[in-house]
């Protein structure tokens, strides 16, 4: 996600994302009551192709219209969902700050590890009012990996400190990897492509599983614990949220729609990568998190990114480019795309941030 904000002379706010400057909201915007679509994907793996296509049509329509939707009957066991919430709470409640800082991302060569709350009372809008732990791709947790015996670059609490934690987190990671690939096949079908047309994007995905904790309103600031408006740079995001309503999605009319928790569902949103591949047909939609409840909120987003293949090229599908709708984005290798995206999202103090748009500027 990107979080560089600016205010235009007319009062509108914009945020810099991988797809250029995007309007955040109008000065008169208000919370809308519109509900995001809920899609039953139980037939998404049905042996009957026509049934799969029917589900694919629904998810693609949602990807075009809102870029956000719920999925039900997704195949992830309730027990697995309950366990990942339990493990998330264990990490943030049972470990001391000193113990959590042993996994501080500043010590990691990648962008994994622990991200503490960063509170600046003088600049609440610039504060990071949540804490999280990021885990990258784990071959040992990937049902499709050829090298399942290999572990990733993640740091895990010792087994005697949080017994069973690593095993359960990897188990959940396996489920959402499998679900992400199912969704990718549905997107391909819905675009009238061969069902496995996008498989090359996900052989060894640059993915991040984030366990996040949003406290209630913190001392020293009147701001709710939050994440500012942004889009996700990956292919798609699968979000598991608890019962505290906090996620808000920006509608195409400039209104914030609350994505209220619905038991038994995940929230899925389109990332910048899919927006690029479809030449803007799919919507990579602005969203934010605002926990105004004064109660702790926990969420588990899974960011499913492109394979870390340095030479694979990300560019708009030929079927999405026409004389009336010419290519909007510059092609680039997945390696370059991952590097520039991570630089903007997880910049570190020693890193110079270069925000370049990959949007092709209009001529004339």
TrEMBL record:
PROSITE patterns attached to this UniProt entry: FE2OG_OXY
Any one Gene Ontology molecular-function term assigned to this protein's record: oxidoreductase activity
Gene Ontology terms describing biological process: small molecule biosynthetic process
Domain Fe2OG dioxygenase: 204-306
Record region (Disordered): 130-153
Record keywords, A-Z: Iron, Metal-binding, Oxidoreductase
Family annotation (Gene3D superfamilies): B-lactam Antibiotic, Isopenicillin N Synthase, Chain
Sequence similarity: Belongs to the iron/ascorbate-dependent oxidoreductase family.
Protein's name according to its UniProt entry: Fe2OG dioxygenase domain-containing protein
Species, as recorded: Vermiconidia calcicola
């Amino acid at each position: 996600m990107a979080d560089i904000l600016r205010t235009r002379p007319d009062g509108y706010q914009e945020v810099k994302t991988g797809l250029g400057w995007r309007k955040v909201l109008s000065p008169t915007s208000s919370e809308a009551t519109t509900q995001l679509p809920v899609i039953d994907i139980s037939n998404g793996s049905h042996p009957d192709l026509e049934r799969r296509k029917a589900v694919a049509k629904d998810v693609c329509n949602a990807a075009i219209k809102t870029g956000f939707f719920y999925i039900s009957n997704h195949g992830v066991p309730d027990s697995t969902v309950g366990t990942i919430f339990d493990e998330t709470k264990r990490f943030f409640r049972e470990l001391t700050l000193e113990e959590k800082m042993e996994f501080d991302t500043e010590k990691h060569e990648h962008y994994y590890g622990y991200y503490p709350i960063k509170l600046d009372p003088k600049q609440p809008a610039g504060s990071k009012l949540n804490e999280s732990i990021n885990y990258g791709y784990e071959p040992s947790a990937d049902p499709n990996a050829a090298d399942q015996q290999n572990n990733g670059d993640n740091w895990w609490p010792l087994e005697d400190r949080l017994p069973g934690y690593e095993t359960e987190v990897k188990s959940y990671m396996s489920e959402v990897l499998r679900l992400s690939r199912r969704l990718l096949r549905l997107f391909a079908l819905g675009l009238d492509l061969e069902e496995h047309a996008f498989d090359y994007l996900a052989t060894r995905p640059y993915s991040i599983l984030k366990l996040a904790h949003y406290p209630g309103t913190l001392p020293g600031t009147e701001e709710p614990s939050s994440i500012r408006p942004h889009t996700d740079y990956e292919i798609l995001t699968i979000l598991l949220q608890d019962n505290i309503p906090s996620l808000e999605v920006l509608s195409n009319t400039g209104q914030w729609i609350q994505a209220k928790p619905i038991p038994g569902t995940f929230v899925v949103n389109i990332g910048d990568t899919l927006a690029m591949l479809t030449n803007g047909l799919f919507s990579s939609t602005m969203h934010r998190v605002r926990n105004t409840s004064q109660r702790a909120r926990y969420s588990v987003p899974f960011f499913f990114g492109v394979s870390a293949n340095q030479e694979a090229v990300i560019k708009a599908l030929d079927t999405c480019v026409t004389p009336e709708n010419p290519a909007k984005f510059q092609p680039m290798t997945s390696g370059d795309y991952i590097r520039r995206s991570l630089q903007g999202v997880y910049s570190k103090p020693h890193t110079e941030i270069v925000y370049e748009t990959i949007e092709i500027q209009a001529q004339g």
